[in-house]
Structure formats: C-alpha cells, structure tokens
Design a protein that fits this description.
about 30% helix, 3-stranded antiparallel β-sheet, 2 domains, about 20% strand, alpha/beta, single chain, Rossmann fold, SIR2/SIRT2 'Small Domain', binds adenosine-5-diphosphoribose, 9 helices
Length: about 230
C-alpha cells in the first residue's frame, strides 16, 4: 500500500458498540417506545422539547459510564503515526474518538457535549442536562438546543469532507449500516475520485456492494489489525 498517502475513515455507531453504546438499527433500537427517527427531528423538538432534551440528556449522562475500546484506540494510534493526510469523520455524537486521543477528526452529526444556539448559530461546550431555553453564551438568547444534526438537517463540515474524499487514496468505513445519507454515499464519492475502498463491519451493510473489500467482524478486532497493516507498510 505504498501508494497511499491520504486516508479518510468514516465511523458509525458500530465502532462504539463494544464500549456499550447501543447502535441505532440493531435490537433495542427503540427508546421508550419511540423510533430515533421520530425523536431526532426539528419537528419533534418544536412539538415536544422536553422529550427531545431528555433523550439527549440521558445519552450524554451515559457517556460517563463508557470508555474507548480497542477500535477507537487503534484509530488514535493511526492518527499519531500516519505521516500522510488523515481525516476521521464520525457520525457518532459520543466523545470516544477524542478520549482515545484522536485529533484529526470531526463530528458530522454533532456532539452530545455541545449546545447549539438556534438564534445566532454559536456552538458551546456543554456538560450536564441542557434545560429548555438555556441562554447562549455568545448572543444571550434563551435558545440553546442539543448540538445534534437532526434528520432533515445538513451535516456539519460537508465541504471539508468532500475535499478530503476527492483526494483520498483510501476510504475506510467502520461500523455503519449505510442507511443514512450523505455519509452512506461517501464510498461512491471516494471511489469516483480513484480511492480504494474498504469496509470493516459486523454484518454486510446496505453499502457493502460499493466497497472493493469488506471484512466482516467486530471493530475491536478488525480496526487494530487494519491499523497494524497500514502502519507497517509505510
Ligand atoms: N463492530 C463493527 N460493526 C458493528 C459492531 C461492532 N462491534 N456492532 C454493530 N456493528 C455494525 C452493525 O452491523 C451496523 O451495520 O454497525 C452498524 C451500525 O449501524 P446503525 O445502527 O445504523 O448506525 P449508523 O450507521 O452509525 O447510523 C447512522 O443514523 O440515526 C442516525 O444520526 C444517527 O449517526 C447515526 C446515523
């Protein structure tokens, strides 16, 4: 793999499953009888803000009881040891990549430990329950909401992601079902621009057909093995 310089890694809920965070579309995907698709929307926030805030408050509180697993740590090792360009794009709103030590990464679907002002658009670090109508540190409006990209909203940093995909030599997807766009389309964008494509997932995903290679197994096993492979090839 000596011709590989630029890598983009996309991660999804599957990479955090072995840390104890439930995936979205597996068993137990319902929350108090609601489908996530019915809670994580701007319409749900407008109709029942208490419910939506509680959903994210509980998920944020649950972070205290989980730790990064070998897959997060392996990507942090890649981040520290890779001389070429690397961008880890996570769809996850947990902070396990950062806690493992990754720095060349972004959260395209937002973060549990952040709040977003619906008036001025400022984002601020937020830990603990987020009361409805909490005040924005930048503009003062009583308008903070969870800093999460809801269904129907535009993911963050798409220009930066598209630019990285366009020059990627290798695109690797870890633990994502390929059900939610635009992330589900990244493999095709990267391949169109000439990247090799590799999927690491517990089950064949909806996007498997688009990857040159799919390895089936747990992220905690497959990711460290792949990172060893790519770093030893340098
Ligand atoms: N190792 C690797 N893959 C795993 C593991 C594991 N230990 N456990 C589960 N998986 C795989 C599943 O087989 C599945 O294909 O991870 C995938 C998880 O899929 P989803 O639950 O659909 O999660 P994700 O693809 O991240 O969802 C995308 O949907 O609800 C929205 O915004 C939310 O970011 C999320 C987006």
């Amino acid at each position: 793999m000596q011709d590989i310089r630029n890598i983009v890694v996309l991660t999804g809920a599957g990479i955090s499953a072995e840390s104890g965070i439930a995936t979205f579309r597996g068993p137990g995907g319902l929350w108090e009888g609601h489908r996530v698709e019915d809670v994580c929307t701007p319409e749900a926030l407008a109709a029942d803000p208490v419910l939506v805030h509680r959903f994210y408050d509980l998920r944020q509180a649950a972070l205290a009881g989980v730790e990064p697993n070998p897959a997060h740590r392996a990507l942090a090792r890649l981040d520290a040891g890779w001389d070429g360009e690397l961008l880890i794009v996570t769809q996850n709103v947990d902070d396990l990549h950062e806690r493992a030590g990754a720095t060349r990464m972004l959260h395209m679907h937002g973060e549990l430990l952040s709040a977003l002002c619906t008036v001025c658009g400022a984002r601020e670090a937020w830990a603990g329950a987020l009361p409805e109508g909490a005040g924005c540190g930048a503009c003062g409006a009583a308008a903070l909401r969870p800093d999460i990209v809801f269904f129907g909203e535009m993911p963050y940093q798409m220009e930066r992601i598209e630019a990285a995909l366009a020059k990627a030599d290798l695109f690797v997807s870890v633990g994502t079902s390929g059900a939610v766009y635009p992330a589900a389309g990244f493999v095709q964008t990267a391949a169109y621009h000439g990247a090799r494509t590799l999927e690491l997932n517990l089950d064949p995903s909806m996007g498997s057909v688009f990857f040159e290679e799919t390895r089936i197994g747990a992220a905690g096993v497959l990711v460290p093995a792949w990172v060893d492979e790519i770093l030893s090839d340098v």
